[in-house]
Amino acid sequence: MTAFEPKAIGPKSVTSTMQMVLLALLPGCLVFTYQNGWGSVINLVLAVLSAIAFEALALKLRKRSVISALSDYSAIVTAVLIALCLPPLLPWWIPVLACGFAILLAKHAFGGIGYNLFNPAMVGYAIILISFPTELSLWLAQPDGFSTSLNDSIGTVFNGGLAALPQWDALTGATALDQYRDLRLQGTDTDLITTQTQGLFGARQSEWINLAYLLGGAWLLRMRVINWHIPISLLATLAICTLLHNALLSNTLSVSINLFGGATMLCAFFISTDPVSAATSNRGRIIYACLTGFLVYLIRSYGAFPDGVAFAVLLSNCATPALDRFDSWLSRSPNET
Amino acid sequence: MTGAYKLHGGLAFEPALFGAIETLPLPEHIGIQIDRHATPAITVGDHVLKGQVLCEGEPDQALHHASVSGEVTGISQGVISIKSDGQDNDFISPRVNAPSALQINALCKQYGLVGLGGAAFPVNKKLDSIQHHTPDTLLINAAECDPAIYCDEALMQERTEDIVKGIELALAASSARQCIVGIEENKTEAIAKLLKHLPAEIKLVSVPALYPSGAENTLFSLCTGQTGGLRKHHSLCFNIATCYAIYKAVILAEPLISRVVTVITESTVRNFELRIGTPITDLCNHLSQPLHSAITCGGQMMGWPVTSEQYIDKRTNSLIFHPPRADKAVACIRCGACADVCPEKLLPQQLLWHAKPHNRQALLSLDLHNCIECACCDVVCPSHIPLTEYFIHAKKKIRSDNTEQKKAELAKIRYEARLARLQNQSKRERKKLDAKSADLSNSKNKDQLKKDLIAKALQKSKSKKQQPPEKNTDGDRS
Ligand code: SF4
Ligand code: SF4
């Protein structure tokens, strides 16, 4: 019965929330596919199609209305987030598997949208990252810019992926974070690390995609799809931890590489802002995001994985029920017992 | 003019444009809704004058008056129908000059005044409720209670002087220590006019133009910075339209038989001064709206559905001719939008989580009782969950559980008292029995017992024979 619509409120439905998130991912998708070529386009298509199929299957099994639930676009957002974490020219079944784990295990086994404890995209990605670490570390050395033809790409994807090609070694190169991890583990001089991985304003190559995510994220903030609490606290914690580490301990990644490298911006604006698996109050969200930022810093500086985003998010997800309880406890009125 | 304290959350709306207050032609017939327990003071066939009392109210209910002159054609299901005679003759009541506080109170009762903000609580009852101590603040609610209601603003723009007189009367009747008028900051014309006429001792506070600034407890904390509600701070609140009605009753000796109603259709926002009892059908015809259209009374946020067969009553502050929007509710995605807008700083999402299984303890500790049912959370929820409905329901359940609990406690006390009484009784009986059985076991055998009994009986009869006079005196004494 709304005669007048209120001003300055967020999206009016779950569907439009998800649509706006997809729209905000568009610049990132463009940079990503430019850098990684047809291989990543194929990843995106495979992920989206399989996510829709898995979602429909799960809804059918759970005897829910397939069309109305599919139309909330949440499965597509999950699929796109997964595809944006994957290197190009993977064997076709890896993205499909990731979406299967994400939709069936992380989402519907917990009760569907609204009830999942963990971020589905990160569950899917983390499982295949642990299972196929080699395949998932093969990124192209140079921006592809669609120079590999679509036909060749499809051929590679359906014949065992990049790793099965005889010349794969020549094509691939380590990402900035990979390089840093390797040098760190070898005990190389830290100055060298910085000169080898520093780009214009962030990590070499991945700074551009991070910039694109930042733009999309800023738009989401402006449209009130997300609140500032999570991205700002996450980025600030990551920056402060890095600064402190550099000042007090040894040299680690520079602040600019940490912020504009790996999946930092994707995590800050698109992954950890997933409302379902984040804490629910603004106070809880600040703590949640600080925790994620701190974990990203820890994993990148000390861990065995070059980028820690997926694990940092999943670990923080574990903490959300506790954070929610803590928060209701804090906001309890003093005169009630 | 002073600034206000800050409101958490709330919703901003674009204010609508509206014209001057309009009227409808004299209705052919009217229907006055009377309270269920009220006894009609007239019978079918009577001729009544405009302003004549129609029913003897219960002590805590307001009186009702005829809003046209004419013939009473029916009294059924709590509605008194009157067919207008087209004359509109007034029932003349004497005016009271310079009335005292008590007289104002009595006049409010005599002329059937109720709060016109929506709750329709009798004005005299409200004044009575603060009789035993001087109220701290008299708050005048000049903020609209709903984004789709403009009747108070229109009234303030057109009848400022009368309203100010009404405010002064209300202040005199309540003898409050201070009087504050709270108004939304974007009602610039009304603010300017009020400032021109208000006496210096009455403070005007402009509050943020956000829904629900016009909810009385919210307005109170915005104007005074005091939280916990009017009642906690011995304060009371009158709506601006109520003040206008007080002016009309006390100065003009006019009962409450009309009110300003905001009428919103797809394309227009208009204000009508309507007689209480005007059939909504008349309005439909006047606005050329279909009779079966979906009509919402009481605003777009907290309103309720009405049909065109109903009549304008004292609570009708607005009518919206607008099809209701039916969005299907889906699962909560924990986005937190509801908590961002909640003016009471509650966590509606958490409340919902506990309201569904009715987890009483959690609901209480999350301050469900502070929810003002403003429906801000509903409006922003992307999952279209009717949160407020859940909360109203949960609050009702808690209230009824409380009374149940009290009843149960009383019953328990009664039960325990009865148990104790019975126990005492049975104890006494047991003692007697014990004594008897002790006697029995003491006796060696039946023969002995018999002999004893016989001996006793003999002795008794002997003593009776020996001392008959003593017995008599005993009897006299007793
Ligand atoms: S209805 Fe209650 S919970 Fe919802 S916004 Fe209003 S006060 Fe808060
Ligand atoms: S606004 Fe609706 S979907 Fe969002 S947290 Fe509140 S109840 Fe859940």
What key attributes describe this structure?
heterodimer, A: 337 residues, mainly alpha, 16 helices, 3 strands, 63% helix, B: 478 residues, alpha/beta, six-stranded mixed beta sheet, five-stranded parallel beta sheet, 15 helices, elongated, binds iron/sulfur cluster
Mean pLDDT of chain B: 87
Domains of chain A, number: 2
Q: Beta-strand percentage of chain B?
A: 15-25%
Largest sheet of chain A: 2 strands, antiparallel
Strand order of the largest sheet of chain A: 2-3
**Distinct ligand kinds:** iron/sulfur cluster
The average pLDDT score of chain A comes to 87
CA radius of gyration of chain B: 34 Å
Query: How many H/I helical runs of chain A?
Result: 16
The helix-and-strand class of chain A reads mainly alpha
Explain what this protein looks like in three dimensions:
The complex is a heterodimer of chains A (337) and B (478). Chain A is mostly helical and 337 residues long. Chain A has 16 helices and 3 strands. Chain A folds into 2 domains: 137 residues, no CATH class; 157 residues, no CATH class. In chain A, strands 2-3 form a two-stranded antiparallel ribbon. Chain A is globular, with a radius of gyration of 20 Å. The two termini of chain A are 39 Å apart. Chain B contains 15 helices and 18 strands. A 6-stranded mixed beta sheet of chain B has the order 3-15-14-18-16-17, covered by helices on one side. A 5-stranded parallel beta sheet of chain B has the order 1-12-11-10-13, with helices on both faces. Chain B has a 4-stranded antiparallel beta sheet with strand order 4-9-8-6, with no helix packed on it. In chain B, helix 5 links the parallel strand 11 and strand 12. In chain B, helix 1 runs antiparallel to helix 2. Chain B starts with a strand and ends with a helix. At the A-B interface, strand 1, helix 1 and helix 16 of A face strand 2, helix 9 and helix 11 of B. One iron/sulfur cluster (SF4) binds next to helix 9 and helix 10 of chain B.
